[in-house]
Design brief:
Number of helices: 5
Structural class: mainly alpha
Order of helices and strands: HHEEHHH
Low-confidence stretches: none
Number of strands: 2
CATH architecture of the domain at 10-84: Alpha Horseshoe
Mean pLDDT: 84
């Protein structure tokens, strides 16, 4: 079940549903593969690739990989899909967070 308040793009919704044909059609039509999605979980952001890889990981852990989800994951991966932390925005966010933590440590402050 999705967290309440999750706002997703059509690409992300269809990645979540394992609808590879629709994912492919959306990508062919120019959908932004690496747009971040506000997961409404604090400051967490995700992409369609995060969703697809998370579903595959869960299925692997449960011992049953669904072919449609694997195909969706591969479609995203093979067309340049990135996890949020790998995107330019994600890298900048992580660098900013690390800099704030280092500044807080060096100045003795708990939070900025």
């Amino acid at each position: 079940m999705l967290p309440q308040g999750l706002r997703m793009t059509p690409l992300a919704w269809h990645a979540y549903g394992g609808n590879n044909d629709i994912v492919s059609l959306l990508l062919e039509s120019g959908a932004d593969i690496n747009v971040d999605i506000d997961a409404s979980r604090g400051d967490a952001k995700i992409t369609a690739m995060d969703i697809a890889s998370g579903l595959i990981a869960k299925q692997a852990k449960d011992g049953h990989l669904n072919d449609s989800f694997m195909q969706t994951f591969l479609t995203l991966k093979n067309t340049g899909g990135l996890a949020y932390r790998e995107t330019k925005a994600g890298k900048a966010e992580l660098a900013t967070k690390a800099a704030k933590e280092e500044l807080a440590t060096n100045t003795g402050r708990q939070e900025l």
